[in-house]
């Protein structure tokens, strides 16, 4: 089987670039550019047409884009996008050149920063909910003093009440954090949280000139809430949450970034 060309991202240059022997597939393939009229795909020869979603493959894909990002604005391309030939890549760039130029303009000088907020002690959180919610306190007393044959159903109802209160508390805490960072962010993506203790899992699109102020605000938030929650702050990283170029060869091609 002949090699294809694995695509990592798109950048705004027509000049040849060599990013070293860091290509996906474990062969040490050179990552370089294939360009057309001011836009280029960053690609490497590829020993496969499809890649398993493994930690190693995903990490290689991400690290290549992060390396390119040090010198260029990048439009990440969806993982495991492989062209049959450089000619197919140039055809892609020709067809979508205006779209890519517009997106590169939108992303110019911007970075993604990630922030997760996690409660440290869920026992304390549930205790706080029970103490502050009169309806929950009354229901707990009802279970204690009521007939045992109703206790099972009452406990299910109580569990739902606590779950709803926890959801409301999470939303309030998340909004407190987001409101501190919203005015210096071009865009925000709230991703799915995992477990009862995760309050927020968000990505922020930020201009590079605002990075220091963003850092300071996160540090200020951490100082205010370090007793009850942990803030996990990462970045800068490529704007994976805001741009993800999707290619369907010989068919419709789209960018699945949300409007």
Topology:
Blueprint: E1 4-11, E2 31-36, E3 39-46, H1 55-69, E4 74-83, H2 86-107, E5 110-119, H3 122-132, H4 134-145, H5 151-181, E6 187-190, E7 198-207, H6 211-225, E8 229-237, E9 245-246, E10 254-255
Antiparallel strand pairs: 1-3, 1-4, 2-3, 5-7, 5-8, 6-7, 9-10
Helix pairs in contact: 3-5, 4-5
What can you tell me about this protein's structure?
- The protein has 259 residues and is of the alpha+beta class.
- The chain has 6 helices and 10 strands; from the N terminus they run E-E-E-H-E-H-E-H-H-H-E-E-H-E-E-E.
- The longest helix has 31 residues, at 151-181.
- The radius of gyration is 24 Å and the shape is elongated.
Low-confidence stretches: none
- What does the average pLDDT come to? 87
> How many distinct helices?
6
| Rg, Cα atoms, Å | 24 Å
Q: Which word captures the global form? A: elongated
Order of helices and strands: EEEHEHEHHHEEHEEE
Largest sheet: 4 strands, antiparallel
Kindly report the spatial arrangement of strands forming the biggest sheet. Answer: 2-3-1-4
Number of strands: 10
Give the N-terminus to C-terminus distance in angstroms. Answer: 39 Å
Look at the helices and sheets and give the structural class: alpha+beta
Helix content: 40-55%
Residue fraction in strands:
25-35%
